[in-house]
Structures are given as C-alpha cells and as structure tokens.
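Support request, please re-run this one:
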Amino acid sequence: MAKRLAAIDTSMSASERETRRELAAAFRVAHRFGWNRTISNHMTARLPDNPDQFLMNARGFGWHEITADNLIKLGLDGRVLTETELMPGPAGLNFHSAILRSKPHINATLHLHPMAGVVVSALEEGLQLYDQEGCAIWGQVAYHQFEGLAEEADEAPRIIADLGDRFTMIMQNHGLLTVGRTIGECFVFMDTLLRACETQERVMATGGRARPLSRVVCQHTWQQMEKRRGNKPGGELEWQMYRRLVTEEV
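Re-run finished. Output below.
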C-alpha cells in the first residue's frame, strides 16, 4: 500500500488549496473516464501565487486514490518541496517541469498512454479528423518522435520545440500530451484529442472506405469555434460539469 503524505500545512494559501482540489478532481474524472488504470502517467498544475512551483501526482498512487492532500509540490527545477518519501516518476517530472519552466503562460500539463492514443501514435499518417468535435483541435496537434523513456534531460527541449505554441501533442509510438492555460483547458483538450483518436480507431476498424474531413472544412469549423470562445481558455463550462462528477471525492 502506498505511503500517505504528511498532512497539508495549515498555513497553505487559499489559492493552493483550491488548485489542489481542482487537480485532484481532474485525476478522479480521468480515472472515471478510463484514461489511466495504473500508477504511471502524470498531470501537473502551476500554483497561482507561486508560479515557480507546481503540483504533481506522486508515483505509487492510482489516479482514483489521488486527493488534494497527497499531491506533491515541486519547484520548476525539480526539487521536491513536500515532506514525503514518495517521488514523481522521472520521465514525467523531466518534461512536465521543463514545459512549465519554458512556457509561463501554460499552467497545466497532462500525459497519458490510453490505448486509442497509442494506436494512432503508431500510425504513419498520424491523426485524421472525421467529425465536428475533432475540428476543435485543428492546427493544434504536434508530433514528437519516440526516443525511449522520456527521462533524459536532453529530450525535454526537443519535446518543447516540437510542441511549439500548440496545446496538444501525439508522442509517436508512446501516447498523448496536452497543455493548457487552466486545468480545465488542459483536461478538455485531452478529452477532445483522445475522442478524435478513438473515432479514427473505430472508423478504421470498420474496414470501410474512410472519408476524413478536408483541410478547408476543418479550418472553417475551427474558426467558427474560436469565434465563440474568444481569447479565453477553452473548455471551462465542460470542465466545471466534469468536476461536479467527483465533488465529494477530493
């Protein structure tokens, strides 16, 4: 059984407490959706009042076990600031901390190995869009070539360079990565990316002649969606609905 962390410091700021609750909710919802069934993979959130610090899950907890008080706090240099014997996974810590360090406007990251995402990550042609929902990530999908376990320090800059200014990434022969200006935006980007992968997987499984959407239609639909959203982080209404699913658990 995984060891529990020390109790939360009573002097903790209100913003850190709220960020802990929100991030814990994201782990619980992700588990409920079947995104992760192991102790692997990671999600992070920058602390609003201490932008050089962030929260992350400790290796040893299933995502259904994560609560506000067993998330660990780290510095952007990778130092563990929480009193605990548990540590984050080295691969996750390597590139999650690097992304937050290099992109001050990004406040959350999420990395998964869901089956449909792994399947599409292994396809030479990459992700194909087949429906309206998928158009929400038009122009937002980056790719990074598999290099082995992503725990080498020199790989992190390549992940960042490949990601560029986009919010979603298919890590080839590996899995999926999303980032966001808020936890909700990051979560909903992952939801959209994974559903697009699932749609492609199911379309291919029919054996029928597939009809992906054209670039022109994808771009037009994406522009319609962007006009509705304005310049605000996306997915906030959807995220609040998802969060209500697990309000009593975190």
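Residues 14-244 form a domain with the L-fuculose-1-phosphate Aldolase fold (CATH 3.40.225.10). The CA atoms of residues 201 and 207 lie 11 Å apart.
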